[in-house]
Amino acid sequence: MTATVIDGRAIAARMTAEVAQEAAALAQAGWEPRLVSISVGDVAAAELYVRNQRRQAEAAGVAFEARNYPETISLEQLTGVLAGLNADPRVNGIIIQRPLPAHIPVKALQKAVHPLKDVEGMHPASIGNIVYNDLALGPCTAVAAVEILKTLPLKVEGLDVCVIGHSEIVGKPIAFLMMGLGATVTVCHHMTRQVAVHSRAADAVFVAVGKPGLVTGNMLKPGAALIDIGINRVEGRTVGDADYDSCAEVAGWITPVPGGVGPVTVAVLLKNAVLATRMQRDHYSAAFAAAV
Amino acid sequence: MTATVIDGRAIAARMTAEVAQEAAALAQAGWEPRLVSISVGDVAAAELYVRNQRRQAEAAGVAFEARNYPETISLEQLTGVLAGLNADPRVNGIIIQRPLPAHIPVKALQKAVHPLKDVEGMHPASIGNIVYNDLALGPCTAVAAVEILKTLPLKVEGLDVCVIGHSEIVGKPIAFLMMGLGATVTVCHHMTRQVAVHSRAADAVFVAVGKPGLVTGNMLKPGAALIDIGINRVEGRTVGDADYDSCAEVAGWITPVPGGVGPVTVAVLLKNAVLATRMQRDHYSAAFAAAV
């Protein structure tokens, strides 16, 4: 194996330590960062995420309130709940856990979260702001993947990058984040004729598709960086989208699954929580100053 | 010359004819589409655009009011003006002409236009909506370029596309629009090591950089489509970003400048005006129905 294995947990720990410092400073100023998580129905997978986020949030000094609503709640009622959270100055960030019941379209909820409290970076305005290179609250997984790449000794400006997967919350945001940093980005997906032609020409490959074994060693340029965002369950184990062994023979750097992008995603969520709190504090200060 | 020259004016005329029908129907229902154009200071270039837009708007049954404010207006005053236009139900679309004076940051104004009246498709939420494949009011030039490509007998799904230029209002939106249609997109820009490597592999090339002669025939795959969005003045003539003669020898289709993307851009603005009017009418109907 030639690839350096990227330690996602170590990167996450560094980020979370910074978060803890900023959260403590904000708390001293009377602005303890506070997240509210919304989940609907009785879903074990969502609850696992919630427990994980709560644990890491509280360890970093970010308060975390988990709310669960019955499966029967309507979209109107949920949007009412969100309106209340938007207006509550003690709430700094709102998280919407998935999966949601079939009658609750996730996009409608994403639009209902106030952009200033959109710690998951899902509101169309947050996405649009990133396209405009005004990165404030970005989509956590995408930001995490890019942050990991930025820790490598690669010059991002002019880098040839291939993003496999064009999802709205991961693949596309990664693409425009990397574009904003000066990379030449190609986005591949299930309709691409020959993904390997594009991935083999790239210095860095991001994959977020949800297909175990999709990326194999012969699809990579020797020495390339491979950032694997996929999370799949295969025979009781959690694996990414890369065929790890063959990729690790060719790549220069590779993220393991688990222990790669996952931990950094939560750290980014907490970074967003602290940033959102600061933005709201500035917003309120300006509003009060103007009223005086 | 092998390339078929794409007739932008003809495409624009077809689109405008549809707009005229829809505008007439809306006017009959009491909702004549109405655009308000805002320009600041005394700039001849902006006035040319305004005259052109007004002429084409009125020919399509879209009312057009041009407002000009003195150079000395402040950002706060202008945002106040926009707030008034946002609230006025007789105004269906707001256009912000460029250039603006140095003390007026264009992004602040773009954010101040209500997304429902954002006929230029510049509000971050409009851009974010495109990334989410919810195309309603898209950025006019980008939408025009893609609409032109869609008139060609090319299967967009799986098409290898190269976008040269990564601007926030043209290059990037074209990339996301084409991704949404299933193309494999590579975005090149001034930091790209070798644009020709990417452009020569593409079935369709979009160029929007503002450099005359940037794209030459040897940078194209024979038979490719070239959509030239550049507008440059060279020795008294208006030219695009392509070295037209050498490109026309190699390309399968090419847009001339002028007479290519430009006319279609205005037609898209008018399409957006009619769509915005319809969305506002539905919004008001729903609001009144709820209040009863």
Q: How much strand content do the residues of chain A show?
A: 15-25%
Low-confidence parts of chain A, pLDDT < 50 over ≥5 residues? none
The main β sheet of chain A shows up as: 6 strands, parallel
- Structural class of the helices, strands and pairings of chain A? alpha/beta
Radius of gyration of chain A: 20 Å
What is the CATH homologous superfamily assignment of the largest domain in chain A? NAD(P)-binding Rossmann-like Domain
* Helix fraction bin of chain A: 40-55%
- Write down how many β-strands of chain A occur, each being a DSSP E stretch of 2 or more residues: 11
Second rung of CATH, namely the architecture of the largest domain in chain A: 3-Layer(aba) Sandwich
H/E element string of chain A? EHEHEHEHHHEHEHEEEEHEH
Helix segment tally of chain A: 10
Distance between the termini of chain A: 65 Å
- Order of neighbouring strands in the sheet with most strands of chain A: 1-11-8-7-5-6
Name the average pLDDT of chain A: 92
CATH class of the largest domain in chain A: Alpha Beta
**Oligomer kind:** homodimer
Find the biggest chain interface. Answer: A-B, 34 and 34 residues
Can you tell me the number of structural domains of chain A? 2
According to CATH, the fold-level topology of the largest domain in chain A is: Rossmann fold
